[in-house]
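PROTEIN DATA CARD
Card holder: Branched-chain-amino-acid aminotransferase
Chain length: 361
Origin: Microlunatus panaciterrae
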Amino acid sequence: MTLPFDLRRNPSPRTAADRAAILADPGFGLNFTDHMAVATWSRADGWYDSGIVPYGPFTLDPASAVLHYAQEIFEGLKAYRHADGSVWLFRPEANAARFARSAERLALPQLSTEDFLGSIEALIAADVEWVPTAPEQSLYLRPFMFANEVFLGVRPAQKVTYCCIASPAGAYFSSGVHPVKIWLSTTYARAAPGGTGAAKCGGNYAASLVAQQEAAANGCEQVMFADAAEHKWLEELGGMNVYLINTDNELVTPQLNGSILEGVTRDSILTLAGEHGLTPVERRISIEELLDGLRAGSITEVFACGTAAVVTPIGSLRTPDTEVTVGSGEGGETTAAIRAALLDIQYGRSEDTHGWLRRVV
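Structure generated from the sequence above:
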């Protein structure tokens, strides 16, 4: 049975002037639209009480399970305004599938693909005026689910809240797209074998924050994690997957191993590789191979990717013992070309030959 996401209109929406001021400089994750999608699940009744409601706070009991055992998951995707005024999603079915996998790993109920997409499309329809029109701006969508049962026992919660909120988004990095300096952490691990690394849950990001502080203390903007077992194999950044390009015209990324998030942007770039004369390769990459390859010039470009930042060139890598520049340190031409190709598809500037776009409005 499909959940109904009927609109209960916000009686006090932002004025057109307020909305215009926000859209003129939206930042990232700072402002939110007038409505949100919600639904409730209980073991006894399944999914119910769904709708598009006024954006506002939740009331949580201090004993709500999520506050004690972090049983929650989330997703991130964007709605893009095309030149003709239409609004499109990019591969939302992939986000729905990952949301279901994350729910299974965190012992949460699964929301069907149909209901996941229905909630997002109904929210966009209600708040379509919030979808930016400026270049490279978008409406960032954050579906999430959390345990809302009032109970302190350690077991899967029997009551759960689903919600999707929306936020107009400018550039993820406020200073714009430029090569970033990365701290290679072998002290801290983001996720371990058998853990929740392949799920998109808050605990993985919380685990990365102290390493992010370490990176900042060493003059770096982001942190890159090695594996938890040997501390020698490259995995991913705190919130992005990572790629390298070598002189064999290979586009190489760490293979999925259960502790690396299966990014939608990551998968899309693997598909686009051949269009840029590259052979996509998924395999283990050691930190030693990475640093030695950069020093020898056999690795020419390194970049990170994710929904929020899209593609971000990496200019240098720093460890406690050394710092190695990636190519010229200014970012590579192929990285820029891949980023442009992906954005051109998302914004409708080039043909979607892969069937990735889904029209909403």
